[in-house]
Amino acid sequence: MPGMSGLELHRELVKKGHTIPVIFITALAEQSRPPGLLRDGAVACLSKPFSERDLRVALAAALPGT
After folding, report:
1. What is the pLDDT along the chain (66 residues), one digit of tens a residue?
2. Dihedral angle computed from the Cα positions of residues 63, 9, 35 and 17, in that order, rounded to the nearest 10 degrees
3. Which CATH class is domain 6-62?
């Protein structure tokens, strides 16, 4: 995304009161995740490569009841 990272977009949406379930997918190591990512409302942050199980758990958290 030119001009804005996914994290910046998420924070801007939260700041404006838009709460949508977000699952971040990154190639960065778990230790490199921005602090507060989950505290700021992200449902999950999956580091590549991730398992099908991890994706299913994140999706179930993002879309309860489906």
Report:
1. 578 888 888 888 989 999 889 999 988 766 666 777 888 888 999 989 999 999 999 999 999 887
2. -60
3. alpha beta
